[in-house]
Amino acid sequence: MNTHIIALKSRRIWDSRGRPTIEVEVALVGGAIGRGIAPAGASCGSYEAIELRDGGNAFGGYGVATALANIEREIAPALIGKDALNQSEIDHIMIALDGTPNKSRLGGNAIIATSMAVLNAAANSQHLPLWRYLAGDNPVSLPLPEIQIFGGGAHAGRRIDIQDLLVMPIAATSMDEALAMVAEVYRAAGDLMADAGKRAGVADEGGWWPDFSSNEEALQMLTRSIEKAGYQNGEVMISLDIAASEFGSGGCYRPGLELREYTTAEWIAVLINWIDKYPILSIEDPVAEDDAGGMIDFTEAVGDRVQVIGDDFLVTSATRVRKAVEQGACNAVLIKPNQAGTISETMAAMSAARAAGFSTIVSARSGESEDVMIAHLAVGWNAGQLKVGSFARSERMAKWNELLRIEEALGAKARFAGAGALPIRSR
Ligand code: PGA
Ligand code: ZN
User: Fold this and answer.
1) Taking the model in full, what pTM does it have?
2) Mind telling me the catalytic residues?
3) Which of 8, 204, 243, 359 has CA 20 to 30 A from 309's CA?
4) Mutation choice for ligand 1 from 148, 163, 307, 360, CB with most ligand atoms inside 8 A
5) What is the pLDDT of residue 424?
6) Which domains are present in the chain?
């Protein structure tokens, strides 16, 4: 059979932080090949698939020699001869072979790179772009982007507590227009930082370095940047990733810039005050991953006017999504394939979210590569939204630019998800 795997090899390559990562290349009998590259997080949820790293001194402990050996010795022999069109079978073979709940034995990085490579090979064997292979005859849309203007938290040496200050160009009617709007806001923010004597390069994902003395100063600067770019009346809205597990646990929040401790209820009050003062439409991980009660309270308080996204809290897990739905926590889920560890489990989390009416945001990681697969996943799965760091540095721009090519390929059929992708009516 032409679509059966005939060869599977892996290699060490380097990610956007200059750290080692894994690339897998799969070849099929009929000659199609596919590659997959594992991305890497910095602020990871405790329940994510584990990235297997070598430890020790070399590369700060981030080596991937053990994970590469696992691919060569165990994963490749188990997958040779299997049909690449049967993604679910391939992924379940790897899950069973690993045998742990969090893929810690073979490595989530080894498994996701392989899963992605098989998917690309399958699409190539059908001579289809990945988004089209995934969508089949189902309708697709270009995703509403969430794009970071200021980086913070774990991506900027904890200079400010909020990890991502992003914008959503909800008045756009096409991908092309959406990206042009964000380009203007990004540039305006850079100019305002320069005028204030605060322009100091960029953070991990390409957002401006957050040289601010309070979290609110960052929110004010972002609001001013949107205005300076000429947008008003909710044309461009703010999305925040609080990544609260980085400074809170056990119902106690210690944001480094706020000079005091907060209980969950007090911290939620701070966030609600920001929502009332600034044009905020979306908040990710407002409370810590261990604070289900806080997530329920926050969603109950603002879920009718703000998208409440679970990232560390839901870790792209169908089980955790279903539990959140039952509890009334969150109304949206971040979809990161390497949190789940396989493409099939990622799709299961998407389906669980969709069945409950949650919105879905496909997301890159802070450690990225030139790979553009997530742009195709966002379109092919009709996810509605995509988050890929900022609007600078080519490991980010590669994804945004790929969406422009897909929009062009769709021609008159291209539809931009826009504000309709949100779980709420825009404010
Ligand atoms: P990470 O950050 O890739 O470093 O985990 C992205 C996010 O928290 O959304
Ligand atoms: Zn996050």
Assistant:
1) 0.98
2) 205, 336
3) 204
4) 163
5) 86
6) 5-127 (3.30.390.10), 144-421 (3.20.20.120)
